[in-house]
Fold these 2 entries.
Entry 1:
Amino acid sequence: MEQKKKPLYDALVQHQKKDPISFHVPGHKFGRVYPDGTAFESVLHIDATEVSGLDDLHAPEGVIKEAQDIASHYFGSLESFFLVNGSTVGNLAMVLATCHPGDQLIVQRNCHKSVLNGLELAGAEPIFVAPEWEEETNRYSVMTKEAIKQALDAYPDAKGVLLTYPDYFGRTYALREVAECVHDYGIPLLVDEAHGIHFHMGAPFPEPALQAGADVVVQSAHKMAPAMTMASFLHVGSDRVNTRRLKHYLQMLQSSSPSYPLMASLDLARHYMAGMTEEDVRVLIRFVMEVRDVFRSSPHWNVPPLTEWDDPLKLILEKEGSGFALAEALESVGLFPELATSGQVLLTFGLGESFEVEDLKRRLMDVDRQLKKQSKRATIKVDQPRLPVVQSLALSFSDMIETPVKWCRWQDAEGEVAAEAVLPYPPGIAVVLKGERISRSQIDYIQALIKQGASFQNEQIEQGIMVFKGEWK
Ligand SMILES: Cc1ncc(COP(=O)(O)O)c(C=O)c1O
C-alpha cells in the first residue's frame, strides 16, 4: 500500500483551501470567531468536523478508512484504529472487549492506571504478575515466560494476558517467548506498547509487539512518534480477539466528535515514520549517541549503558536518592525531563534532531554549577517494595462497590485494604492497588517518595489513605 499517501491529512488541508464558510460546529468557525486571532489559530484552521469528504471515525468509509488501512499495512496488523483519547482509551477498550464481569485477566503488576480502570469498569478479576526485579536497573522490568506460565497454571480460566512492553524507561524483554506461551493456553496476549510505536522502524530498536505475536496492541503515537498529544493507535494482530466488541467499546468510549487535527496527526506521524530511511535512522542514532556522550561526561550522575533490550531513544540519568532534585536542577536551565523517580531521571528523544548539542552543553555547565552547590543536600534512599510474583486482590471490584470506606492515617494503614490506588504521576503506575492489602514496605516507600518531592494524584497523601471498612483486616 502506498505509504507516501496521507489521505486524511491532505483532505483536511484541501478542505481549508476551499475557504469554507462554516454553517456547522465547531463554534469557533475555523478560528474566525476570534477577531484578533489566538495563539492556536493554525490548529483552529484545520479543526473541522464530519462534513462531506472528511469521513466519520465511527463509520469510516472514505479518507479515515483509507488512512487507517495504510496505517494497518505499515504496522502489519489485521486492522488498525485511530484513537483520540490516548492509549488510555485503547487500554480500556482492550480490557472491556476481552472480559465479562467476573472473568479473570492476567495483568502485569506495574501496568498503567488505565488498565486498572478498565478492569474495574469490566468488573473483571485481575491476577497480577510482577516482572522480575533487576538489580542492574533498580526496577521491576523483565517479564518472564516462567512467571506468566506460573499464573496461567494457577488460573487456567483466565481470558487473556495483558502486558506492558516496553516499560516507561524503554526496557523490553523476550515478548515472543511470552506470546508463544500465552497462545499455548489458547488465549490472547494484549500489549500496552504506549512507549514503543517506533520499534516498527526496525534495528536498532527492539522487536515491536505485533511482530512478536501480540493479538491486540495499543500505542501512543504522541509519545515517541511526532503525533499530537492524545493521538494513538489500537492494532488487531489476530482473530483471537473479538474485533466487533473492540469496535463497540471504542465507539462507546470515544467522543462522537473526534478531533480532526488529532486524527490527521496520526496520518502524518505514520507517513513520517514510513518515510524514514535506514540512513535517517543511522543519523538519528548518531545524534543520540553524541548527546549520551555529553551527559556521560558529567560527574554528577551515572548514565547506564544501553543493552540490546533497551530503546536507544531513552536516556536515563541515575543519581541515587536525588532523582527529583536532579530534575529540578535540569529544569532550572530549561531542560525538561519526561519524568523523575527517587533515583532516576528519564529523558526521551524524538524521531529527529530537535536541539543543538552545543546549546545543551552550555546549559549543562549551569547545571554543574548548581549541583556543586547542592552537593551537601541530604539524599534520601528508598527501597522499592518487594512484590509477590502472582497476586490477586483482597476484595473483588463488585465487593468494593458495596463496601463503605474510611480515612486511615499511615501509621494505622498496614494490613488494611486500600480503597484507592496510590499513584505517583508520572508514570501513573500504582504503588498500592485499589483492593490490595497495604504492606509496611509500601508505606515506607510512599513516605520516602513524599519526602523526596514526588507528585501524586491522591488527595492528602502526606497524611494517609482511604481504606475499606470492615472485616478485611
Ligand atoms: C505504559 C502506559 N500505558 C498507557 C499510558 C496512557 O497513554 P495516553 O497518555 O496516550 O493515554 C501511559 C501514559 O503515560 C503509559 O505510560
Entry 2:
Amino acid sequence: MADGEFRSGFVCFVGRPNTGKSTLTNALVGQKIAITSSRPQTTRHTIRGIVHREHTQLILVDTPGLHRPRTLLGQRLNDLVRDTYSEVDVITLCIPADEKIGPGDKWIVQQIKQMAPKTTLLGVVTKIDKVSRDQIGEQLLALSNLLGPECDVVPVSAVKGEQIEVLIEVIASKMPEGPAFYPDGELTDEPEETLMAELIREAALEGVRDELPHSLAVVIEEVLPYEQNEEMLDVHAILYVERPSQKSIVIGKGGARLKEVGTNARHQIEKILGTRIYLNLHVKVAKDWQRDPKQLGKLGF
Ligand SMILES: Nc1nc2c(ncn2[C@@H]2O[C@H](COP(=O)(O)OP(=O)(O)OP(=O)(O)O)[C@@H](O)[C@H]2O)c(=O)[nH]1
Ligand SMILES: [Mg+2]
C-alpha cells in the first residue's frame, strides 16, 4: 500500500454454526466483544467489532451461523445474515480446518453469489491448530475450488493467534480508500447492556446440553447504582427458558448452578466494563419462545 493511503470498510464473517466466526472476530479486535461456545448457534445478532491500524480501519460484522432453520428464530437469524451481504465491502466465508466442506457450505456460497454477486468474497480456513500442515494445504485447496480462482484463501488460528495480522492485511487490501468510521480506540458498538446479557448467556451455556442452549435467552431488566456502594452497579437480569424442567436445570440443586453462572458472568462483565457489579439473576419460563412471534419480539428478535 502506498504511503498516506487510508482504507476503511466493512467485512462480514459468515459460515455454518460453530466454525469459529466469533472467536476470530475477538482475536482480530484484540478484545472479547462476542461470546463463543462449543455449541452451534451461539451468536444471535450481528455484532460489530472495530480493528484499528495505522493505514486502515476495518469494521467486522460477526453473524449468526447459517443453517437450515427449524424454528422461527432460526429463520430470522438467516434473514439477518442475508441482510448484511448488501451492507459490506467484503464477505469472508469461514470453514474449519478439521471438517470436510459439505452441502451446507455449498448452499452458503450459492446464496452469497446470488445475493451479492459484485461483493469481494474471501475464504478463511479456521482452527488450523487442530490439524497437520498437509491437512491445512488440502483444505485451502478445497476452499479455493469451492469459491473460484478469483478469491483469496487465508489460513488462521484464532486460539493460537496465528496469521491474524496477515488476515487483517489481506482484508484491508480489498477495502476502498476512505476515512475511519469510528473514533480511535472504540472496539465495538455493542451497547453495554447487550454485552452484559451476552456474557450472562455465555456463562449459562457452559455445561448445559441437548436443546437447552437454544432455549436460553437473557434480558437485562435494570441497571442501577448500587445502594451500598456508589462505585458499583446493581444489575438485574432475567434468564428465559422454554420449559419448567429447563428452569430447574439452570437453577440447579439449591440454586448452586445459578450461583456459579452468576459468579462467572460477574467476573467477565467486570473485566470488560471495568466497573464492579452486583448481579441479580432470575429464571423465568417463556413457553416455546423460539417459535412464538410475539415472544420473539419481546426478546428483541
Ligand atoms: N482449536 C481451536 N478452536 C477454535 C478456534 N476458533 C474457535 N474455536 C472453537 O470453536 C468453537 C466455536 O467457536 P465460535 O467462535 O463460537 O463459533 P461461531 O462460528 O461463532 O459459532 P455460531 O455463533 O454458533 O455460528 C468454540 O468452542 C471455540 O473455542 C481455533 O482457532 N482453534
Ligand atoms: Mg458466533
